[in-house]
């Protein structure tokens, strides 16, 4: 007997995509951009200190809105969607008769490479390399029951949140000498950032980016990766439950989810905001406690956002509105990196050098203009191409053969 033949692996055809996932991914992309842009114009050493103390008027109001309703919520939504996308990809690989693990490992390795290049060439705050590592837990747990994925995901996320709360207590009890050393290290990094980012050459800024990552980003992976992995698992549970495959038939579930997640979202966020929204240093115990509480509120808040958007999708008018975001969602990786490219050229010394010159309101104006262009470009690009440019490269490396690039047109 001849060996069984496997179907050729490849990306999901457009006709088989879940359009609601693309729409949600497009919305999440906007929120991530609104959060990330501050990281291109403010020292990494100040992240965790809340709203800049010099913000006033409209800048303060916009910064407050981003801090309360966007920061931490939309990367979480993006992570939920990554977990959902993993389920769809795994199902497709399994249906083709190929083993899942080799394909996923290649996919994650390429994502890791994208993330490391992103750090070196554009921004120290990359999340792609964290996704690449955290995604391995999805691979390891793909066959356990959905309810256990949910349980493990919530435990991982809640455990990291609990660590942040414990860290606040540790900071309150830490010896003054140790706190002084930590503060000096942050101050040194902040001074270097404020000197190099607005005035340095590409090589100097790239070196500073790597230094900022090694000082702050690398050590945060010990907590960020488990937290992201937890969100991935919650997203996998949502997709495997079937509630997104036919949203209109499952409106009761989305209302139920909204009812369950809204109280903790409001409670933890309100407690975090109540402790303050601007702090002298991220090392202040009050700042760490506020960060931990806001973090605990981010997952339920993002689930509430997803529930509201899915419920909107079940109406004709809501679906028309959300469909505007779907083409951008299909090119999310390309647009995420393009946003970093625009910001690096806008704020760094080898570009316009506007580091520190634009307040939060002006930054948000940049976000809206750039994202509006991305919304306009996406359907035009996808009318002629099957994938975004970076997605095309990612799929080529993942599946081991070059995907179709342009769409075929039939001449009447």
Q: Mind explaining what this structure looks like?
A:
- It contains 15 helices and no strands.
- By secondary structure, the protein is an all-alpha fold.
- Helix 1 (19-36) runs antiparallel to helix 3 (74-96) and helix 6 packs across helix 8.
- The model is unreliable at 1-6 (pLDDT under 50).
Shape: globular
Element string (H = helix, E = strand):
HHHHHHHHHHHHHHH
Radius of gyration: 22 Å
Low-confidence stretches: 1-6
Secondary structure: number of strands: 0
Average pLDDT works out at: 93
Structural class: mainly alpha
SS strand fraction: under 5%
Q: What helical percentage do the residues reach?
A: over 70%
Span from first to last CA?
A: 45 Å
With helices defined by DSSP (H or I, 4 residues minimum), what is the helix count? 15
Oligomer: single chain
For the sheet with most strands, the description reads: none
List the helices and strands and how they pair.
Blueprint: H1 19-36, H2 57-69, H3 74-96, H4 100-121, H5 128-140, H6 146-173, H7 176-196, H8 202-240, H9 251-275, H10 285-313, H11 316-323, H12 326-330, H13 332-347, H14 360-384, H15 389-399
Key attributes of the depicted protein:
0% strand; 412 residues; globular; mainly alpha
Summary, kept brief:
The chain is mainly α and 412 residues long. It contains 15 helices and no strands. Helix 2 (57-69) packs across helix 14 (360-384) and helix 7 crosses helix 8 (202-240).
């Amino acid at each position: 007997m001849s060996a069984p033949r496997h179907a050729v692996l490849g990306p999901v055809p457009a006709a088989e995509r879940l359009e609601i996932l693309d729409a949600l991914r497009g919305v999440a992309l906007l929120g991530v951009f609104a959060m990330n842009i501050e990281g291109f114009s403010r020292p990494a050493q100040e992240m965790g200190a809340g709203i800049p103390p010099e913000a006033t008027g409209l800048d303060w109001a916009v910064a407050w809105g981003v801090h309360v309703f966007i920061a931490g919520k939309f990367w979480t939504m993006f992570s939920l969607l990554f977990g959902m996308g993993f389920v769809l990809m795994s199902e497709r690989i399994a249906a083709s008769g190929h083993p899942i693990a080799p394909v996923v490992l290649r996919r994650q390795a390429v994502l890791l490479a994208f993330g490391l290049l992103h750090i070196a060439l554009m921004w120290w705050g990359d999340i792609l390399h964290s996704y690449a590592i955290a995604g391995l837990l999805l691979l390891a747990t793909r066959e356990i029951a959905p309810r256990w994925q949910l349980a493990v995901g919530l435990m991982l996320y809640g455990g990291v949140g609990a660590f942040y709360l414990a860290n606040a207590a540790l900071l309150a009890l830490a010896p003054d000498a140790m706190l002084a050393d930590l503060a000096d290290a942050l101050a040194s990094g902040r001074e270097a950032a404020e000197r190099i980012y607005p005035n340095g050459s590409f090589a100097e800024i790239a070196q500073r980016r790597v230094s900022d990552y090694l000082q702050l980003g690398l050590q945060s992976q010990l907590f960020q990766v488990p937290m992201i992995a937890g969100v991935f698992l919650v997203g996998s549970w949502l997709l495997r439950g079937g509630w997104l495959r036919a949203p209109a038939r499952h409106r009761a579930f989305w209302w139920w989810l909204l009812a369950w997640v809204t109280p903790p979202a409001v409670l933890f966020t309100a407690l975090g905001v109540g402790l303050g929204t601007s702090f002298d240093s991220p090392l202040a115990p009050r700042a760490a406690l506020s960060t931990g509480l806001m973090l605990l509120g981010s997952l339920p808040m993002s689930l509430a956002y997803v529930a509201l958007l899915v419920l909107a999708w079940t109406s004709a008018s809501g679906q028309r509105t959300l469909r505007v975001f779907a083409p951008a969602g299909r090119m999310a990786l390309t647009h995420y990196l393009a946003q970093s490219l625009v910001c690096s050229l806008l704020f760094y010394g080898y570009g316009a050098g506007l580091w520190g010159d634009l307040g939060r309101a002006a930054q948000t104006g940049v976000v809206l203009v750039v994202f509006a262009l991305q919304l306009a470009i996406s359907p035009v690009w996808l009318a002629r191409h099957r994938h975004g440019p970076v997605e095309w490269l990612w799929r080529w490396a993942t599946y081991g053969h070059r995907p179709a690039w342009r769409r075929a047109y039939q001449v009447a």
